[in-house]
Fold this protein.
Amino acid sequence: MAKQPQRDALRMLADDHRTVEALFEKYDNARSASVQAKIVRQICEELTIHAMVEEQVFYPAVRDAVEDDMMDEAQVEHDSAKALILSLMTAEPGEEFYEAKVSVLKEQVEHHVYEEERQRGSMFAQVRKTDIDLDALGQEMAALKQQLQEQAKSGSLPQPEKVALRA
Ligand SMILES: [Fe+2]
Ligand SMILES: [Fe+2]
């Protein structure tokens, strides 16, 4: 894979969001079940890696700088998306509820991305006001992301684990 130029933490996460949005759009335009299945697997992998990078590096680094409620909701939203991802990882297009699961996952991701980067007082806006070193954080996140992408390539990416909804 081409080496990405060094990006700060917020740029990197925003780019991930755009990647997933584009994949959902591709899914909506896909006409064959095999193409749909491939896109959904990609979405699940992208989101799993993205959530791990956020939960293991980004969220802990910004936790104290962002409203508690917002951080707690973000985690519950991640866990809720993981339930759908786990279910979709073993499902095939045409199965009962398949399309509904993809469509609800898309809605949840849109909502979550809105709160992270777009709404007034978004998580990213709150982070931007601090003196957190976003370049150093971006570097740490990029290293973890690369490691997870390699694991995904070799089929050893861990399954998403819920943090707040551990029933
Ligand atoms: Fe995110
Ligand atoms: Fe997130």
Q: What stands out?
A: The mean pLDDT is 95.
